[in-house]
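Field reference: "sequence" (input) and "structure" (output). Example, DUF11 domain-containing protein:
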Amino acid sequence: MPPSEVHPMRGKRRARAAIAAVVSTLLVASGLVVGLAVPASADPPAGGSTVVTETFSGATVPDPAWKALGDTCLTGTAAGARPPVGAAQIRNCDLHQMGAVPLRGTLPGYLQLTDRAGNRAGDILYNKPIPATAGVSLSFEQYQYDGNGADGIGFFLVDGATDLTDTGGLGGSLGYAQRNGEPGITGGYLGVGLDAYGNFWDDGENRGNGCPADQRSPSTNNGPIAPNVVSLRGPGSGVVGYCLIGPTVGGPTSPAGATTPYPVTNPNKPGTTLNGGQGTLRGGTLAASQRTINIQVTPLPNPRVIVQIQYVTGGPWITELNAAAPPNTPSTYKFGLSASTGGSNDIHLIRATQVRTINPLPDLQLEKQVDRSGAPLPAIITAGTVIPYQYTVTNVGAPVDTLSITDSKIATAAITCDSTTLTTAPAQGSTTVCRGKYTVTAADVLAQRVDNVATAHAKVAPGGLDVASPESAVTVPLLSVLTIAKQVTTPAPYSVGGNIAYQYTLSNTGGSILSNFLVTDDRIPSSGIICATGTLNPGQSTTCVGSHIIQPGQLNAAGYLVNTASAAATSTIGQKVQTANVSVSVPVAVDVGVTKTVDVISPVVGSDVTFTITATNYGPSAATGVRITDQVPDGDPVGSVVYRSSSTTGGAYTSSTGAWAIPALAVGQSFVLTIVATVNTGNPFTNSASRTQTDQPDTNPNNDTASVTLNPITPTADLAVTKSVDQPSIPVGATAIFTVTVQNTGPFAANNVAMTDQIPSALGYVGCASPCDGTYDPAAGIWTIGALAVGAIATRTFVVTGLTTGNFTNLAATTGASTPPDPNPSNNSDFATLNVRPPVADLAVVKTPFPQSAVVGDTITYQLTASNLGPDAAPGVFVTDVWPAGVKVVSVSPADKITADGTSWNVGLLNPGQTASATITALLTDSGTQVNTATISSSVVIDPNPSNNSSSGTVTSAQPTLDIGVTKSVLAVRDGVPVTEVPVGQDVVFTVTATNFPDPGSSVTATNLVFGEPLPTEGLQFVSATTGGAGTGAAYDATTGRWTIASLDANGTATLTVRATVIKRGNWTNTVSLISLTQTDRDPSNNSASVVVIGVIRTDLQIVKSVNPTVGQPG
């Protein structure tokens, strides 16, 4: 129907434009197809389970699952009759009698979708799910006749979890696909277009929006493009998808999803391969138009769509299509048929509908799905979200009752069924739908999925054996996420009117399978964006492409074309998945800035100047077709300069037109044009360069023009004189240096340059110190220089001696004889003043010991620095030093300047800023803080700062550490007598040792060692003592019990032997202990030792016995 027409019964749909069909007459008068060109195929499968049958030949349709829309009616229903309550509500055909329709009330009848009137539409929907996992084989008779070939009959399968209550776009979309802004059928999985008119195959009317390139029709025209073609379209959602199945033009294989020849030579008249190219989908009469259609979707794992047609009743089956089925086959289907007319028309009838499974079903078949009849689940399913489930139970066995569902996640009591009693399929009541809900938990969210398994249970009626279905499992991913990235693929530069290509990368980062991608871009219509694939499994990505012609006014203030894109997709359970927005800023405009400089702002008339013109692209885009104009001669007045030559680092300059053409200028890139011209005027003038052209818009006109103004000058030479003295004051007899400079500041070279500089008589002229430019006559006071180039400087120094005290001024001035004239006499002279005074010097001394902390016996180095801090030279400088008693000078340097005891250092003359150094080495002889002070002086110099005339060096000393270890032993003098049993009156010998254990790496000698070695006088009496070993100056005092050692070398051992007599019985302990030494003992634990002597009294008893008389008598 024309775009302005609206179908009277279904106003929400727009009918297609009225285009007369050109249909080849391939039927003979009998209605039989002539000359079949293809061999017969195998009959459709018959081994499965029949689940739905409806002949539509009666006066009513008992099963209320059938839903009629639009102009659909039953011809077998008598005029004025109404469908009975509880049956399908399909009305009579009283209002649809246009053309040679079957007589009302005549049986067997037909399901009439349209009569021959224009702008008719009728649909029949089966809104009860049928199992899909065993495959389906659907057969029906169709009749299309009595008109001029419009539109055709559309057959479709949708996801059985949806509520099939409406169709998709009518007209060329045959009730399945989208049509302009009209959405396609909800839950669409497969559309089969039995297209007599010929526009289901093309992508006109926005069919196939969002489809990949290999699933798009080669034609986007609308009208009778491909009449008598059977085409397959896949899944879709809303206005996205419903793509042609199988590759089209340019694909690697024959387009198995449509009965068009391959390759397609004319996209707008592709022809047909139907029945070998001779088949049609309609006829002139009812009898001639009968076609029996069989559509199969084979079972998993590799399902295919097979379309077979029986062109003659009882004739052979011809397989017209055999293509891979769309991915993600649902577990149940609902189906329907649709037909319509527009400006062209036909009668459309249906009869003898049957649905079988390809594989036999078990007695009780359960298909579990997420229920899609309500609002879709959110893309991100969170804890607390309720997931609705639908359980479709089909009974192909004996009738059953007490049906129930067990589910691993949902209580049986929470699952309700439309019926718990099932007849045997295909009878009405053999299939029922049960429903349950599950609330997502936090544990499910952590697992990112919900898995559950269900089983149907029943009893063979009445009260017979238990029967159970196979398990049916469903996994619901909880995260459905799609991301989009966008980039420009067209290389820079860009310009208004240019075509820019974009690439969009879609990534499935969630857990659901996503399809039906719709990329939305605020610059490109969705129909202009094509993706490489229509389905993404989790973890997969695809790319989409689109292009845009940049229009005026689309750029922002910064010169960028900014566009924003997003993408949407649908999960297999109908969730709407939306990406975030992503924007791309494309630099289009440019900012070509011009700068201009000249090497000489004030040139001399007749000289050459060089103009430097720089063109810089500040972006944001690369610039092309750049033109800068700089006409030479130019300025005010014209002819102020004359062109000589030019050069460029990029582009080409034409001097006759002043055009500098730059083909391309990248962002941030600069090109330079230099023009050499001769100045031929003495008047000021201005020269300009301007950007006059770029291919891109320029966002900043403020920098498009740059100018320089020249001020020509006549020759002059400005001589500038400076005079200085190296020191403002000197003592009498010292020298100072006057420095005079003459600089020619131009703008021209100077000749005959001379200066007058008369030295005052109180200052004796010594001579010239470098530099000594020119010549000087001291008698006349004339310094002759001669020629002096522009910018050149002549310098001469005058060395003088102070003869008397006072302030003396020395003047230097040009003689005025130089050429060309000096335009600025204010800088032709300069003077400097010198003060001659008595000598003054600030003498300073610094004394520093190294190290500043040491032990007795260490060597200390004292560093002395004598300085003259000026301002004058200081003669006769001495440094004196007083050394403390604990420090002994060992050596001095320099020896010819310092006394051997280090007390006086003859420094001599120190000029200002001069320093002298000396080194004195001394030995620490005592512990404690050792301080000594050095003092600097000169008898002939006034020292204005006595605070730095002295410096002290402080050294903190300590005795070194070591370890004195003591041992003691005792032996009895008499052999064999133990010390534990020494008889009173016998002697014992005590042996004592003392060892000096120095610190590691040290060789310190221990001195002044004192040990306590008293004998226990009550039990022992001193006899004698002997000292020995390594110690020197050793002695033992028996009265005090003191053992003294004057010195004991490192690692040396001294010994003491004491002999004593035991004079009393008892235990006598003898202990030796270290009492003192000069150094520090680091380990007192071994400073003493003891032994015990036990005195005993031994007696020698003897018994003598005698008898007297020696002879006795008895009695």
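The chain has one helix and 72 strands.
The first strand starts at residue 50 and ends at 54.
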